[in-house]
Amino acid sequence: MENSCLIKTVDLVKIYPMGEQSIKALNKVTLTFQKGEFAGLVGPSGSGKTTLLNIIGSLDAPTEGSAEVLGEKVENLSHKRAAELRNRHIGFIFQTFNLLPVYTVYENVEFPLLLLGLSAASRKKAVMDALEWVYLADRAKSKPSQLSGGECQRVAIARAIVKKPEILLADEPTANLDAENSHHILQTMEQLNEKLSTTFIFSTHDEKVIQYLHRKITLLDGRVAKDEIMKNAFLRRDA
Amino acid sequence: MVIPKLAWRNLLGAGLKTWLNVVVLSFAFVAIIWTQGIYKGLDYQASRAIIDAECAGGQYWMEKYDPFDPFTLQEAHARLTGKMEFWIKSRRATPILIVQGTIYPSGRIQSVLLKGIDPEQKILTIPSSILKQSSPELPALIGSRMAQSAGLKKGNMVTVRWRDAHGTFDARDIQIVQVMSTSVQAIDVGQVWIPIQELQKMAGMEKEATIVVVEKNFGHAESFPAWTFKSQDFLLQDLKNFVQAKTIGSTILYVILLILAMLAIFNTQVLSIFRRRKEMGTLMAMGMPRVKVIQLFTLEGAMHAVLAAMVGAIYGAPLLIYFGTKGLGFPGTADQFGLAIGEKLFPIYSTGLVIGTTILVLVVTTIVSFLPTRQIAKLKPTDALRGKLR
Prior knowledge:
The structure holds 2 protein chains of 2 kinds. Chain A has helices at residues 49-56, 79-89, 105-116, 120-133, 149-161, 179-196, 207-210, 231-238, and strands at 5-18, 21-34, 38-42, 64-69, 72-73, 90-93, 167-171, 199-204, 215-220, 223-229. Chain A is globular and about 50 Å long. In chain A, α4 (120-133) crosses α5 (149-161). Chain A has one domain (35-62, 78-238): Rossmann fold. Chain A has a 6-stranded mixed β-sheet, sandwiched between helices. Chain A has a 4-stranded antiparallel β-sheet with strand order 2-1-4-5, with helices on one face. Helix content of chain A is 37%, strand content 29%. By secondary structure, chain B is α+β, with helices and mostly antiparallel strands. Chain B has 2 domains: 2-51 and 239-386, no CATH class; 59-215, no CATH class. Helix content of chain B is 51%, strand content 18%. Chain B contains 11 helices and 13 strands. In chain B, the strands form 3 sheets. In chain B, strands 1, 3, 4, 5, 6, 7, 8, 10 and 11 form a 9-stranded mixed β-sheet that branches. In chain B, strands 2-9 form a two-stranded antiparallel ribbon. Chain B has a two-stranded antiparallel ribbon with strand order 12-13. The mean pLDDT of chain B is 86. Chain A binds chain B through residues 54, 57, 59-60, 79-80, 83-88, 90, 92, 94, 96, 98, 100-103, 107, 111-112, 114-115, 117, 159, and chain B through 2, 5-6, 9-10, 12-15, 278-279, 281-282, 284-291, 380-382, 385.
């Protein structure tokens, strides 16, 4: 089990200076995530969910403590090395989808592969596979503005998963979606988690998401208040 | 190749905004090449006309001759050297004798320069062969401006008075045998051309001249006592100064046009940095290094110049080729302001001008595009994703 540990945080502290005061967004957070987990960071606004995701995703560095992702210490990474880590091993899904508006669905999904320098043929195959996984192969030529919110989020999932990253971080992925679309999205992510063994980590306070989680980590005021395995999710999945 | 590909996608994806910038920049492109071509054409045409009609390959001046001081003319004549006479016989040079005189057209007095020229000469484009005609009257050739100012026409007789080498005044009638049309003022205004042999006799300056014009591509000019060689470059210096002064004016226009176009690009870039922060955050989150994001946005801006060159070529090339071939009509009075260019000006659009302008606009656009993108270097991915810019 020890070799399958992808992420490990030890006494993670993140402090944001706000004028003369400062806000402690994370306070001594110690967690580990194994390969293939489908875990969620749950808690009210300001509890530190997004901050923790950002540090795991090497978008931000901790003020104190240590965050080790795929064997790399986030706090020691240069900008370039952090970008490389994200490029090769981490996918992001955002609350507001963050699709590139001037690109087609195909081009949006292709983008991370362009950064990886793959050949045109490999890119095409990977993009079409990813679009098949999210049931959007027929919308490849559409622009984001021509898609519904649910479809946009599925494109964002395809974009995050196309390079088959070890870790996929989703920040409130269903916050802008209605109930039906939320369920579709979560089912898709759950399927991909099973199929590709990608580690999914969500930040959410949406009940619809929580019922899909296999592991729920509750954050309160920057601390881990509870870390529990969700039996219901496994039961639901088995059913 | 990823960055150019992405920049190209972004540029085309931005649609109308891109095309508006491109069109503005293409106007600047075409206007810069257009004006520079006009000045190049003006320089070339004026130089050509002056070389053909006045200075050819250069001139030997009698050492006391000063074209800006008419008082020197009394002394500014000397015997031709043997070598000069040889050149004249072999049609490699032609002498010109200049004597100050006065004409009396319609009872008025007008000061003129009597210029003696060999009717057989082929060095200058002055139609001197007309002076060969055998008539009892002394044949004279004048320019159209001279004819206008003196009220003279072809066939008119007019009395001319001059002072010979010994200081004696004399006078006789001359007949205007032709009024020549020329754009070169220096052979027209206040000048009366007559056969040199006649003028030498009239002035008592046998075998003497004031200047000796040598053929084009004359090669090395020898020195002779009492004569100073003035090269073609020296003789064209005034024109060069004039064109240079005009070029300064055109450069100001050039810079203004460029600044206007660059403002459009700069504005687009600044807006991009502010409006597309989230996009930048997304790119960084997907693993694009900061330096690549800067490259992408800079190249996106710089590519406006590439598109502008293409668009400019579509409408500019036929336009420039048309005027380069057909010429631009020039007001008839233009040459009175010192522009020896004739009725039509043919702009010259050289490859160097087009390539030089394209490179300049590309470089300036790239710099202008880069300046605002430096902000990206200070951008934290998490701030960018939230839409913040520090």
